[in-house]
């Protein structure tokens, strides 16, 4: 029996055959189109593989950083400036920043890069004829002589017209290469960072400005790392961001070119030996828009260090404000403040804040500090304490402007030493250029002279000194500053 053919009008047998041949031609055409499409897709696939190989030819080298083991014999030393007349009954004594800068200048063989906020190494700007300015004047003299012999590059915040610029002019005339970074135009902030990179081998980073007062009249803290090219190279990348932005009319790139990138950050720190002790180290930077791929922002670094603390968080900074201090309209900014409260409550971490008090202190700080201090409650097992550090001054010393203050900017926990260049209010992490060195040596033998223990000893020396006063609800900052 012939099966039924499913179309409405059936012609003779020839018409059926015609329809059959038409369908065969249709399927052959369809098969050809599918084959051609497959061939084109295959060619496209191989092209996507070949193009990167072609563009990565030796004529166009790529600059993505490669994670390497650091075998340098790195040596770290804490350094301080102790103001004239400030005395401690403590064994926590460290080399002076003045002597450290002289050592670095004498060690320089090929290059010195300095990132700085401003330059007043002579007391010409104060009109005080202060004898203790001689240390700053010596540093300027040595840098001037060095500038004619090796490469000296200075990245400095674009100064206001009212600020003295003679130091910079002296160095430029001596052969130093200077670029001013117009932070106000770039981010509405300032270039507040303070570090040196010598021969891509030694580094200094800390709170001291290029100011004679930072050597004799202001309390400062920093760190110098010798014979550590791997760390110096990474800090050099931060300097290069300032150098790049110091070009006329330059804008912040997004993203940054790959040569500014790093593989060392809070998640993958650099592994090296510091003073013979296994250490994990990285450098952070602010603002976030200055952070190339891989770089931990300074704020995230601080939050990470606080989060990872198991026992205590000790903080010594000049200013502490959970606000955008220099922004208008006023803005609340509680990133760090909230994290401190959280670890105190959830992790029962002991929190200590040592905050400075001087003639330029903002009264707004104290309600916020009192709010933190009010958390102290032994029954609830909450341990948050705040002390105010005041540098005493003689009538003569009081005449020196912008002096006699604890200018420190560091944090130490039971695990980490953090040495930075920023005050702790929102603007410094959102708009202003700063940097920090973060060192973790918790894997070390407990008897080893690790930097975390040394920094803890500095904090406890200052905390227990007669220059520190406990803050409570009844404290009147007018009586203290």
From TrEMBL:
Top-level taxon of the source organism: Eukaryota
Pfam family membership, one: PLDc_3
Main localisation: membrane
The keyword Ribonucleoprotein is annotated on this UniProt entry: no
Membrane topology classification: Single-pass type II membrane protein
Transmembrane regions: 29-54
Enzyme Commission designation: 3.1.16.1
GO CC entries: early endosome membrane; late endosome membrane; lysosomal lumen
Subcellular localization(s) per the UniProt record: Early endosome membrane; Late endosome membrane; Lysosome lumen
Span of domain PLD phosphodiesterase: 187-214, 402-428
Protein name: 5'-3' exonuclease PLD3
């Amino acid at each position: 029996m012939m099966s039924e053919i499913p179309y409405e009008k059936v012609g003779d047998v020839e018409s059926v055959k015609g329809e059959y041949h038409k369908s065969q031609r249709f399927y052959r055409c369809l098969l050809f189109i599918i084959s051609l499409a497959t061939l084109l897709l295959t060619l496209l696939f191989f092209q996507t593989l070949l193009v990167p190989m072609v563009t990565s030819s030796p004529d166009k080298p790529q600059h993505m950083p490669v994670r390497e083991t650091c075998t340098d014999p790195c040596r770290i030393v804490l350094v301080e400036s102790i103001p004239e007349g400030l005395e401690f009954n403590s064994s926590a004594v460290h080399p002076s920043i003045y002597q450290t800068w002289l050592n670095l200048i004498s060690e320089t063989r090929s290059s010195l890069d300095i990132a700085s906020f401003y330059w007043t190494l002579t007391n010409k700007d104060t009109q005080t004829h202060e004898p203790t300015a001689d240390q700053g004047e010596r540093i300027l003299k040595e840098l001037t002589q060095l500038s004619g012999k090796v490469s000296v590059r200075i990245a400095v915040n674009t100064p206001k017209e009212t600020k003295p610029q003679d130091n910079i002019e002296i160095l430029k005339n001596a052969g130093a290469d200077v670029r001013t970074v117009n932070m106000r135009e770039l981010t509405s902030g300032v270039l507040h960072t303070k570090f040196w990179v010598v021969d891509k081998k030694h580094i200094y980073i800390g709170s001291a400005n290029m100011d004679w007062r930072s050597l004799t009249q202001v309390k400062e803290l920093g760190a110098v790392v010798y014979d550590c090219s791997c760390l110096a190279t990474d800090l050099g990348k931060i300097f290069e961001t300032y150098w790049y932005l110091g070009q006329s009319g330059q804008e912040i790139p997004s993203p940054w070119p790959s040569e500014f990138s790093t593989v060392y950050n809070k998640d993958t720190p650099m592994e090296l030996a510091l003073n013979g002790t296994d250490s994990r180290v990285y450098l952070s930077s602010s603002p976030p828009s200055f952070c190339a791929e891989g770089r931990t922002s300074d704020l995230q670094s601080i939050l990470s260090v606080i989060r990872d603390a198991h026992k205590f968080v000790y903080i010594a900074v000049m200013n502490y404000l959970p606000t955008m201090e220099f922004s208008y309209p006023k803005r609340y900014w509680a990133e760090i403040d909230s994290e401190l409260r959280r670890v105190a409550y959830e992790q029962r971490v002991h929190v200590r804040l040592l905050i400075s008090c001087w003639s330029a202190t903002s009264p707004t700080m104290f309600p916020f500090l009192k709010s933190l201090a009010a958390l102290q409650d032994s029954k609830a097992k909450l341990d948050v304490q705040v002390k105010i550090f005041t540098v005493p001054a003689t009538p003569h010393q009081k005449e020196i402007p912008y002096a006699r203050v604890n200018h420190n900017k560091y944090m130490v926990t039971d695990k980490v030493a953090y040495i930075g260049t920023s005050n702790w209010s929102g603007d410094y992490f959102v708009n202003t250029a700063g940097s920090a060195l973060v060192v973790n040596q918790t894997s070390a033998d407990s008897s080893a002279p690790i930097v975390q223990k040394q920094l803890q000893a500095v904090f406890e020396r200052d905390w227990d000194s007669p220059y520190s006063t406990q803050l409570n609800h009844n404290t009147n900052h007018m009586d203290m500053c």
